[in-house]
């Protein structure tokens, strides 16, 4: 059965909504520490997912497609995804669950903790994921570079590109691409209004904020 494969990169449009949703559910959220480490459980909430999908309308979701032809029949599957947008427009849907409220509050805390060292507002990339079967092909690097191009095109007045890395591999990749660390916080440093830990399923969880001038 002869076949060929090629990876291509695009900006997602409304016709890609189902493919974006499938990618987020299948290989982003299951490995996203803010989702999996929350005290309520590891499942993504509907409002969190809807908020990610809302960035499609902003033109700031970039996709890596596996274009495969088998016996002359073409097929395309999303194997990588990155999402970003202006740092002052990160919330695009109503908050409907306590878990998503906790995540939004945590990210606000992270942003405020790094603001003294960083440029605000900025273009912030808050999602980067590659399907496990296709890692090691520089897809993540290409997605970050695509996000930087999107930032310059969609938000030309913003002077900086930032990213919050919750995985060590992502942190190392971003630093290789020239981003500099401006903040590092442990999940267990964050407490809710009662003083309780919110992300208690990952004792050594860390979020690293990095920045690069556009």
From TrEMBL:
It comes from Anopheles darlingi (Mosquito). This is N-acetyltransferase domain-containing protein. Pfam families: Acetyltransf_1. InterPro entries: Acyl_CoA_acyltransferase, GNAT_dom. Residues 7-205 form the N-acetyltransferase domain. Gene3D superfamilies: 3.40.630.30. One of its GO terms (molecular function) is acyltransferase activity, transferring groups other than amino-acyl groups.
